[in-house]
Here is the input.
Amino acid sequence: MATHKQDEFLLEAEHTRTKPPPLYKVLLLNDDFTPMEFVVIVLQKFFGMDRERAMRIMFQVHREGSGVCGVFPKDVAATKVDQVVSFARQHQHPLACVMEEN
Here is the structure.
């Protein structure tokens, strides 16, 4: 650590470590009305998944009731949730998308 003398005070460089921001999971929730193909489109459009991965997540949502679309910082996760819900409503689907701390 470097030290400097200035007017009889000893100054030392202070090293601080910042914690990374908390991450949030974005999840799609199953419903009985949203078509499976629409869920695949959402996963490709908003989460950049290829068709194969989107199909796996869609089937997980269908079978288990929810599926993780990705893990993001809080602001990004909130934006993704808003985009998905807005897109679903524009297409008259009740698809639910939520976020929870990882």
